[in-house]
Amino acid sequence: MEHRWGMAIDLDRCTGCEACVAACHAENNLPLSDPAEAEKGRAFHWIRVDRYYEGEFPDIRMKYMPVLCQQCEDAPCEPVCPTYATYHNAEGLNVQVYNRCVGTRYCGNNCPYSVRFFNWFEPEWPEPLELQHNPDVSIRPGGVMEKCTFCIQRIQRAKRDAKAEDRAITDGEVQPACVQSCPAEAMTFGDLDDPESKVSRLAASGRATRLLEDLGTKPKVFYLQRAK
Amino acid sequence: MVLTADFGDPQSVASAIQALKARGYRADEIDVFSTAPVELAEALLERPSRMSLVAVTSAVVFCLSAIAFVHYTQHDYPIVTGGMPIFSWWSTGVIFYEFTMFGSISATFVMFLIESGLLKRRRSLPAPLLEEGRIYLRLFCEAGDAVPAAECLYEAGALKVDEAEVRG
Amino acid sequence: MDTAVDTHTDNLRDTLWRPLAGASRGYALALAVTFLLGAWGLACWGYQIVRGIGVAGIRRPTMWGLYLVNFVFWIGISHAGTLISAILRLTDAGWRKPVTRIAEAITVFALMIGAMFPIIHLGRPLVFFWLIPYPNSRLLWPNFRSPLLWDLTAILTYLSGSIIYLYLPLIPDLAELAQHANGWRGRLYRLLSIGWTGSDRQWHALERAMHRMAGMILAVAVSVHTVVAWDFAMAVAPLWHSTIFGPYFVAGAIFSGIAALLVAMAIIRRLLHLEAYVLPVHFDNLGKLLFLMSLLWFYFTVSENLTTWYGNSPAEMNVFGSRVRGPFAPYFWVMIFCNFVLPFLLLSSRRMRSVRNVTIAGVTVLIGMWLERYLIILPTLSYPRLAAATGFYKPTWVEVSITVSTFAAMAMFYLIFCKLFPAIAVWEYKHGSHR
């Protein structure tokens, strides 16, 4: 509709510091996992930093790739949900409605990026961390799927602010927690429908690729890197 | 008046039925009872059946209702689905197929209940107590015709013929 | 000729009705054991509901585990019955008569068990009914395009169809039992026989209905397992997204169904002393059928794996490699041995196809087919497209308990069924004595 949110991540700038991961945890009330659970693959990281190695050991070059929900236009997770818990909203966001989810986890299996996280138990926070929850983000019950929302609460706030002041949202006004906290300024967020926005220009630049593009999922996260 | 004849083999039952039909009895006045199905010539006791017709009709009705229902549900309370089609023949085809089959299965079961007469208690009054290897023929007839009909049954090979009054 | 047949069927009736009467000590013990195991499984499920699905070993990325393996397995077993009995009925194979009811009962129980697993597997099992379309306060209908909705309709259709298919030919036997039984059994049989008198109208209607049901149940059974296959094939995951999955699963289901039928036949024959009715020729014939399905299964497996290997696409080769030489290789080769090598040795020659050998082949095929479902679900999930998400699954005691308890539940249902109803359709067996 009026917006089509997208993100560009400059892999040449990313240092792999994981500030985005920490910021996301704090912003989105992600449940904490103890080491045993984390070892079982049950830790929650709506954004994670994948590591790739180039060259032969010891002569290697490390490359980092932050992977979050790609907010696909044709998302494989959507049609398989029996209860419409995951669906596409008018702004092209791939949203998850926790209350509708019955926990079949089909969407999780059908996500080629493995960015969907399941609440295996009721979430718990060690004291006093339950006091620092973000009031704008709901706490998910046990047994439902969750994933990156592009910080939809920040998008909503920006829209409300703009409406109250009777103006359009300016480019760069909405910043998800990961974008805001990136010290290398590798991440850019904005409206892909606005050809003048920074993210549109980056997406149109020759450096942009998309992850597993050949699957036809049409992700809205663009990775920028030097053309080889 | 009800006559119940007791036979030892299917051939004599067949000739009894032929003789009764020659006397003007209709197939729906005759019942044959046995502990296992008796093979009789097709035309001998015609039992018209609409089972296939009803099953097919019901299949079509269920299929169409399934299509209508799915179409209705996807357009009622419409949710925003972005790029996804709200109603798609490919991916709801399985549902329509299953509903079609369910329609024809349930109609077959219902038609079984109806055509077997299991739902009609009235007709099933004096059913003979079955004995292994025996075949019983029950005939509804006018009181005046009972004696010649019984003779006809004995001639065909009945071992025993009982008479009873029908009430109601 | 008549007398010989009649004494035979009279004996059959005695043999079949004897086990219905009392309960031996062994029977009570078996019932108690299977009941306790089943109850343990239910207790585990209760624990899982209270504590959260996390007590199972599933994780990211292997979000489906043993529960779904069991789901596919039991739905496959359910094809024993109905499908085989329907094929044999439609082709009018005379030798089918002593085995059809055994097979049809397997179907109903295996379906009841199999249909439980998707619910056990849910993250929020208490709201499973949100998949059922009904007007609700959430102002939402379910998504009919989800394969899980296809599953729901297919399984419900199949379950109701196979219950009818089991029940119809049971009616004459129930009427006959009702004449001889009294007390609560008499009341039960009278109620269930719904006034059957054995009139030719009823026989006609029954035979007509059974003939049509056999055709329809066949069509539904094929669709059910195809839909189960499509749960996987509709996903874009490597080695799941395969067009061969529908027929591959149907063939596998019939394969494991015959195996389950053979094992059930062997057990019932021994326990109910039906040696004079369930004959070596039945094992021989079903053994041939099992052999045929083993070859078909192997053919499908080769086609599936050869095309993958030749195509050499990286994401698929990851999964393929993990199966034939990676961490899943032991299961894979045991599966090949159980499903192909051993059945080939035991079933290909007439001399080898003894009752004992055919039963052994049945048992190994059951093991092999369970492994096959494990190998279809887990390697694909363990190796997602992005290598960073790779992860391996280890079942927990909760999952193992629930799995074991379903086998016990199957045995328990069968014990109860054999105590209430004759294991062979007496009238069908007799049918022909009047010819």
Which CATH architecture of the domain at 23-282 and 395-429 in chain C?
A: Up-down Bundle
Helix content of chain C: over 70%
Q: How much strand content do the residues of chain A show?
A: 15-25%
Spatial gap, N to C terminus of chain C: 11 Å
User: How many whole angstroms does the radius of gyration of chain A measure?
Assistant: 18 Å
CATH structural architecture of chain A:
2-Layer Sandwich
- In DSSP terms (H or I, runs of 4 or more residues), the helix count of chain C works out at 15
Q: What is the 3D shape of chain A?
A: globular
Report on the structure:
The complex is a heterotrimer of chains A (228), B (168) and C (435). By secondary structure, chain A is of the alpha+beta class. Chain A has helices spanning 19-27, 35-39, 106-109, 152-164, 177-181, 198-204, and strands at residues 5-10, 48-54, 61-67, 86-88, 94-96, 117-118, 145-146, 187-191, 208-209, 221-224. Chain A has a 4-stranded mixed sheet with strand order 8-1-10-9. In chain A, strand 2 and strand 3 form a beta hairpin. The radius of gyration of chain A is 18 Å and the shape is globular. The termini of chain A are far apart. Chain B is α+β, with helices and mostly antiparallel strands and 168 residues long. Chain B has 2 domains: 2-48 and 122-164, 2-Layer Sandwich (Alpha-Beta Plaits), CATH 3.30.70; 51-115, no CATH class. Chain B has helices spanning 10-22, 51-75, 89-115, 146-156, and strands at 2-7, 30-34, 135-140, 160-164. In chain B, helix 1 runs antiparallel to helix 4 and helix 2 (51-75) runs antiparallel to helix 3 (89-115). Chain C has 15 helices and no strands. Chain C has helices spanning 2-21, 25-51, 66-90, 100-121, 147-167, 170-180, 183-192, 200-233, 245-271, 280-311, 314-324, 329-347, 355-382, 397-420, 426-430. Classes of the chains: A alpha+beta (228), B alpha+beta (168), C mainly alpha (435). At the B-C interface, strand 2, helix 2 and helix 3 of B face helix 1, helix 5, helix 6 and helix 8 of C.
